[in-house]
Amino acid sequence: METSLVSTTGEDRDDERLPLVSSSPLRPSSPSTTDDEIHLWQPPEPQPATASIASPPPDTRPAKSPRLVSLDVFRGLTVAIMILVDDAGGAFPSINHAPWFGVTLADYVMPSFLFIIGVSIALVFKKISSKSSATKKVIIRTIKLFVLGLIIQGGFFHGHNNLTYGVDIDRIRLFGVLQRIAIGYFLAAISEIWLIRNVSVDSAISFVRKYYLQWAVAAIVSMLYIGLLLGLYVPDWEFQVQSKNFTNVRTNGTLLVQCGVRGSLDPPCNAVGLVDRFVLGQNHLYMHPVYKRTKECSVNSPDYGPLPSGAPVWCSAPFDPEGLLSTMMAAVTCFVGLFFGHIIIHYKVSGQYLLQQFNLFLACKLLMYQTLIVILLLGMPFSKPLYSVSYMFLTAGVSGFALIFIYFMVDIIKFTAPLVIFQWMGMNALIVFILAASEIFPIFLQGFYWHSPSNNLVSLTEAALQKICNSKRWGTLAFVLLEVLFWGLVAGVLHIKGIYYKL
């Protein structure tokens, strides 16, 4: 049986790339042969000067470097948290995305993915034999990721508990999670290929000299984002309300949102929405934005609910949380991941040396958080839908601390057994994301029912657990934890069989 290999971050080395389709089975004990994105390069051992005539010729192939298991664990943990907050967020609104301002558990998922992408890029492109060839691979992978995201989140699949099929091309959603990852990956990977100076790193100064052009790009992107966010004038704008898509809408037709402001960070009149409406068009934005859970738009806030009396008209307006302008700032998180990846590459991986270099990590984090405090004092609060600069600093910093902690636990003291499910999920994160986090597999199962659409395996299992727990909320949580365990075991079976899906 043929094995498909798909990767999201361009993990193949130029000189060791595996075919997309391989007819020979992969050895379960050597996942490193299929996923090079998380390997630390080590120079091959020197060959002896003389050798016996009867001795076989020396193996001149590059030595395989140990796998950085912590990155797998971190990626798998992020996917598991994504499943948890998406499927249990309705029962526990406190872990669901913040309605507009603020940060919850769910709001750390996307930055963690972007941070991991950055770390992976640094490890993958540490040795480049051909910049043009590497650039071509990056472009191809970017297109694949973007198209895959368009298919998954563009409306081609019916929703959870909503067995309807078909998509209106005029209203297809153009941006989403994978599209944002694709753009961040592209910018970070291209900068890693073309902007790294040929400088030997033997000190902090040489480290800065080698990578300062990348940091300059990240700073320019950040300043451009801030300039557009605070400088663009947002005029009044109109949108169409379709009664079939929204509940409790008081009128159909065109509604006017009154703005006429500059520098607003509120839901109706910010520059992020202005850019998306102008470039993408309102029909191609997300129709159920998170601000529908604000107090102005929901009687059940911070959960979804009916519109309260006197709700503003913008409560029914579209807004894309993964739009163009916010994706610019999100891409900077990939550059922060690049920085951490470079640290991993240039410093020894021993427990004692890690503790010695922890001061370097801590100093960088303190600088980030000092900058964060200044930004907060200047009036830029945390906002995941806007991907504000303060939100970027906070979540990227937390991702960095998380990676350091997991790295110490997993790669240094070898505390791996309790985390093996997350490791498996991380090694096949793309397939788990598509089938589980994007609900493709549950949706498929729901399509098979007995007499009534509600009599399907997914709904009946969740209802049974709610009855056993004598609580709808805790039964839902039990169902989601069972779902995470199921996908962890599926990823484990794929690992045992040597199957790793990459793009």
UniProtKB/TrEMBL annotation:
Amino acid composition bias (Low complexity), ranges on this chain: 19-32
Domain Heparan-alpha-glucosaminide N-acetyltransferase catalytic stretches: 67-228
Superkingdom, according to UniProt?
Eukaryota
Q: Which organism is it from?
A: Carex littledalei
Q: Which UniProt keywords apply?
A: Membrane, Transferase, Transmembrane, Transmembrane helix
* Protein name in UniProt: Heparan-alpha-glucosaminide N-acetyltransferase-like isoform X1
> Which Pfam family is one of this chain's hits?
HGSNAT_cat
What GO molecular function terms would the record report? transferase activity
The upper taxonomy is:
Eukaryota, Viridiplantae, Streptophyta, Embryophyta, Tracheophyta
Location of the region described as Disordered in the Swiss-Prot/TrEMBL record: 1-65
Q: Transmembrane residues, as ranges?
A: 105-126, 138-157, 177-199, 211-234, 324-345, 366-383, 430-450, 474-496
